[in-house]
Write a structure and sequence with these properties.
FAD/NAD(P)-binding domain; 12 helices; alpha/beta
């Protein structure tokens, strides 16, 4: 039965949800406060990452956060501030950062990433979207020290045990793969299982497709209030009008927690700011890489190479910290001595806010408070990678189908 569905949020999660729902015959409206041309879905590293099997809330991460709290150029920066929601989230993050919880999450994270990788390929094969970059060259984890190399090798062995394609590379093998760029590294782990895209390209083409098939895109409209009658949401009030839907999907990224409060729901989400710099000149880089000690992501995209990274918890804002921009430029040069990111390139830095749940796992599922509310948010650094999988699962939930994957660990009503 066709339903009238309202999606709050026009990022990768919202658009992929719209994609699968319209294919099931539903009438879909996407509402976003921006013009859907910027933010995390446009400036991320573009990775499709089955290799990212360890959630952000891993043992030792909170200690690193406290250690780096007063260093605003650190890779994992928590700005000191008086914020009750942030205090609660931090406590939940600490509670989630146990070996037992991480081990339980690893196979689930692997499964949803592999599922999403297949769906990206299905979208490509369907030719619904005009041709977009989707490559499967893998991901290089580049390290300078034995310590980092040994740490990543442990993760690589877990990935192998889960059936993912991964290999350890000697320097000779690494340079055979990337012969046109000088690298100052000790070695690398190559996750052949990974892929990459150009996010802004995919987003523009997905938007064009959705408009062409009748999905209503309402951009530059802010959701001001959400009205309910008992356990049913019956009105979405925006800065431009009022909308009525049979189902409501909250996919508003870092703003999801604030919108949930309008329904008196406590959804622990913090905005994790990332930065990216595009270098629109030849770099010689052909394979995506993570520069481990610098915690930077490097991606060869169509027309440019993107250098992205950092996780900054400083609230919802788009402020650019110059020291963090300089850290990206320095990290790139440290690993690729021939690359110097110039002042003009640094001045064009972009930021985006990633919605981070306390345990690093997304919220995908129905609300227990409202029977027509579905959450699709909280993906942390995996939002891009998990876009299609989340959209497909949301469509299955709305159609009361058995979900392709077990979503128990993604339950939005879970306790921390």
């Amino acid at each position: 039965m066709s339903k009238n569905i309202i999606i709050i949020g026009g990022g990768i999660i919202g658009l992929c949800s719209a994609y699968y729902l319209q294919k099931e015959g539903h009438k879909v409206t996407v509402i976003d406060k921006s013009d859907i041309s910027e933010g995390a879905s446009f400036i991320n590293a573009g990775y499709i990452t089955p290799s990212h099997i360890v959630p952000l809330a891993a043992p030792g991460m909170m200690l690193k956060g406290v250690k780096w709290m007063f260093n605003s150029s650190s890779p994992f920066y928590m700005k000191p501030r008086w914020d009750i929601d942030f205090f609660k989230w931090s406590w939940y993050f600490h509670k989630s950062s146990t070996k037992e919880k991480v081990e339980k999450a690893i196979p689930v994270i692997k499964d949803i990433n592999v599922f999403s990788r297949e769906l990206f390929q299905d979208i490509k094969n369907s030719q619904d979207l005009e041709d977009f970059q989707l490559e499967r060259k893998g991901l290089l984890m580049l390290f300078k020290s034995e310590k980092e190399g040994e740490h990543e090798l442990q993760i690589a062995n877990k990935a192998k045990a889960l059936g993912l394609e991964v290999s350890e590379l000697s320097n000779a093998e690494l340079h055979a793969l990337e012969p046109n760029i000088e690298m100052d590294v000790k070695g690398a782990i190559h996750y052949q299982c990974d892929g990459h895209t150009t996010p802004n390209q995919f987003m523009k083409k997905m938007l064009a497709y959705l408009k062409a098939v009748g999905v209503s895109i309402k951009n530059n409209e802010e959701v001001l209030d959400i009205k309910k009658n008992g356990d049913v949401i019956n009105e979405i009030i925006t800065s431009r009008g009022v909308y009525f839907g049979d189902e409501v999907i909250l996919a508003a990224g870092s703003w999801s927690g604030n919108l949930a409060k309008k329904l008196k729901i406590q959804l622990p989400v913090q905005a994790g700011k990332g930065y990216s710099i595009n270098v629109e000149r030849p770099t010689g880089i052909t394979i995506p890489a993570i520069l481990m000690e610098s915690k930077l992501a490097v991606t060869p995209m169509q027309g440019f190479t993107r250098f992205a990274g950092t996780m900054e918890f400083s609230g919802i804002n788009s402020d650019v910290r110059k020291e963090r921009v300089e850290a990206i430029a320095k990290g790139a040069h440290d690993f690729y001595p021939g690359i110097v990111i110039n002042e003009n390139e640094k001045s064009n830095v972009k930021t985006g806010l990633r919605p981070v749940s306390p345990d690093g796992l997304p919220y995908i599922g129905r609300s227990k408070e409202y029977k027509n509310l579905i959450f699709a948010t909280g993906h942390a650094m995996m939002g891009w990678s998990l876009g299609p999988a989340t959209g497909k699962l949301v469509s299955e939930i709305i159609d009361s189908k058995k979900t392709t994957l077990d979503t128990t660990l993604f339950d939005p009503n879970r306790k921390f």
